[in-house]
Structures are given as structure tokens and as C-alpha cells.
Amino acid sequence: MPGLELRYVGQDRLPARLSEFDVERYFALTDSDIAAINERFRRDRLAGVAIQLVFLRASGRTLDHVGTLPRQLLRHIGERLGLPTPTIASLRTL
């Protein structure tokens, strides 16, 4: 199903809500991603870097035009990084 595989390619915005399937399928962080992020960035930058990475991987674009982030994505990033769920609603706070 090429359409499903390319669901977010070319997108410059995220929907207000993401399903668990979408989060796990398109916005996943691998163990090697987490190790690389932890090795290269300060703790207060981890969530921002991880969000940028998963969005870039899913869409092929940077987060330049994204105003808000779905709670499901923030929760997933926090869980995978072993951080409290980021409570930010805007990338400007990253």
C-alpha cells in the first residue's frame, strides 16, 4: 500500500490528533536514535531534537510551519526518552 507508507510525506503540518498507529508507525524512535540523541544533546534539548527527527523522517520536511504538536506525539517522545511528557503546545518553547 504505497499510499499508507507515504501518508505524511510532503506534509508541513501535523493533524491536531494522531492515532496510536500513526505515532508508532510514522513517528517512532529506535533505540539507536535514542542513544545518538542522548549522546549528542543536553537533557533539556532531547525532546525538541527527537520531535524534529521523527517529523523529518515521516514527512521529509522540517518543522518550520508546525504551530502545535499533538499530545499523543509528545507523550510518545517523553516515554521513549524516559522524560516526563513534554507539556509544550508550541515549538517556540523548544
Automatic annotation (TrEMBL):
<protein>
    <submittedName>
        <fullName>Transposase for insertion sequence element</fullName>
    </submittedName>
</protein>
<feature type="domain" description="DUF4158">
    <location>
        <begin position="13"/>
        <end position="87"/>
    </location>
</feature>
<dbReference type="Pfam" id="PF13700">
    <property type="entry name" value="DUF4158"/>
</dbReference>
<dbReference type="InterPro" id="IPR025296">
    <property type="entry name" value="DUF4158"/>
</dbReference>
